[in-house]
Amino acid sequence: MKRALLAIVALLFSTPIWAAEFYIMRDLTTQKCTVVDKRPVTAVKTITLASDAIYKSRAEAESAMRTIKVCSSGK
Protein backbone atom coordinates (compact mmCIF):
# COMPACT_ATOMS: atom_id res chain seq x y z
CA MET A 1 0.00 0.00 0.00
CA LYS A 2 2.78 2.41 0.92
CA ARG A 3 4.62 1.61 -2.30
CA ALA A 4 1.52 2.41 -4.40
CA LEU A 5 0.98 5.66 -2.54
CA LEU A 6 4.60 6.67 -3.02
CA ALA A 7 4.34 5.87 -6.74
CA ILE A 8 1.27 8.09 -7.08
CA VAL A 9 2.93 10.96 -5.22
CA ALA A 10 6.08 10.61 -7.34
CA LEU A 11 3.98 10.67 -10.50
CA LEU A 12 2.14 13.81 -9.40
CA PHE A 13 5.37 15.66 -8.72
CA SER A 14 7.11 14.48 -11.88
CA THR A 15 4.47 15.77 -14.31
CA PRO A 16 4.06 19.52 -14.75
CA ILE A 17 0.94 20.95 -13.21
CA TRP A 18 0.68 23.75 -15.74
CA ALA A 19 0.60 22.97 -19.44
CA ALA A 20 2.89 24.85 -21.77
CA GLU A 21 1.38 27.93 -23.39
CA PHE A 22 2.64 29.69 -26.48
CA TYR A 23 1.68 33.10 -27.82
CA ILE A 24 2.27 34.95 -31.07
CA MET A 25 3.87 38.32 -30.38
CA ARG A 26 4.26 41.17 -32.87
CA ASP A 27 6.97 43.80 -32.53
CA LEU A 28 5.57 47.01 -33.99
CA THR A 29 8.99 48.56 -34.62
CA THR A 30 10.28 45.69 -36.76
CA GLN A 31 6.85 44.50 -37.96
CA LYS A 32 7.87 40.89 -37.21
CA CYS A 33 5.98 38.16 -35.40
CA THR A 34 7.58 35.60 -33.11
CA VAL A 35 6.38 32.74 -30.96
CA VAL A 36 7.03 33.13 -27.23
CA ASP A 37 6.38 30.83 -24.30
CA LYS A 38 5.37 33.56 -21.86
CA ARG A 39 2.53 36.03 -22.28
CA PRO A 40 4.11 39.25 -23.55
CA VAL A 41 3.75 42.42 -21.52
CA THR A 42 1.39 44.48 -23.64
CA ALA A 43 1.98 47.62 -21.59
CA VAL A 44 5.05 48.15 -23.77
CA LYS A 45 3.84 50.22 -26.70
CA THR A 46 6.01 48.48 -29.30
CA ILE A 47 4.84 44.94 -28.49
CA THR A 48 1.39 43.51 -29.06
CA LEU A 49 -0.28 40.13 -29.31
CA ALA A 50 -0.84 39.18 -32.94
CA SER A 51 -3.59 36.75 -31.92
CA ASP A 52 -5.75 36.25 -28.85
CA ALA A 53 -5.30 32.50 -29.09
CA ILE A 54 -3.19 30.45 -26.70
CA TYR A 55 -1.42 27.51 -28.33
CA LYS A 56 -0.44 24.24 -26.67
CA SER A 57 2.75 23.68 -28.65
CA ARG A 58 5.37 25.79 -30.40
CA ALA A 59 4.70 23.96 -33.69
CA GLU A 60 0.99 24.77 -33.46
CA ALA A 61 1.76 28.46 -32.85
CA GLU A 62 4.26 28.62 -35.72
CA SER A 63 1.74 27.03 -38.06
CA ALA A 64 -0.96 29.50 -36.98
CA MET A 65 1.47 32.41 -37.37
CA ARG A 66 1.58 31.75 -41.14
CA THR A 67 -2.18 32.28 -41.38
CA ILE A 68 -2.32 35.58 -39.48
CA LYS A 69 -2.50 38.45 -41.94
CA VAL A 70 -0.22 40.89 -40.10
CA CYS A 71 2.42 38.18 -39.64
CA SER A 72 2.40 36.81 -43.17
CA SER A 73 2.30 40.15 -44.99
CA GLY A 74 6.10 40.21 -45.17
CA LYS A 75 6.46 43.85 -44.14
What does this protein look like?
- This protein is of the alpha+beta class.
- The chain has helices at 2-14, 58-65, 69-72, and strands spanning 23-27, 32-36, 47-49.
- Strands 2-1-3 form a 3-stranded antiparallel β-sheet, with helices on one face.
- The longest helix is centred in the N-terminal third of the chain and has 13 residues, at 2-14.
- It is elongated and about 60 Å long.
- The model has no long low-confidence stretch (mean pLDDT 77).
Summary keywords:
3 strands; 17% strand; 75 residues; 3 helices; alpha+beta
Short characterization:
By secondary structure, the chain is α+β, with helices and mostly antiparallel strands.
List the helices and strands and how they pair.
Blueprint: H1 2-14, E1 23-27, E2 32-36, E3 47-49, H2 58-65, H3 69-72
Antiparallel strand pairs: 1-2, 1-3
End-to-end distance: 63 Å
Q: Determine Rg (CA atoms, Å).
A: 18 Å
Helical proportion?
25-40%
Strand content: 15-25%
Q: How many helices?
A: 3
How would you sum up the major sheet? 3 strands, antiparallel
The ordered H/E elements are: HEEEHH
Described by the principal axes of the CA atoms, the overall outline is elongated
| Structural class by sheet pairing and helices | alpha+beta
Overall pLDDT:
77
The total count of strands amounts to 3
Q: Provide the spatial order of strands within the biggest beta sheet.
A: 2-1-3
What number of structural domains do the residues give?
1
* Low-pLDDT residue intervals, each spanning 5 or more residues: none
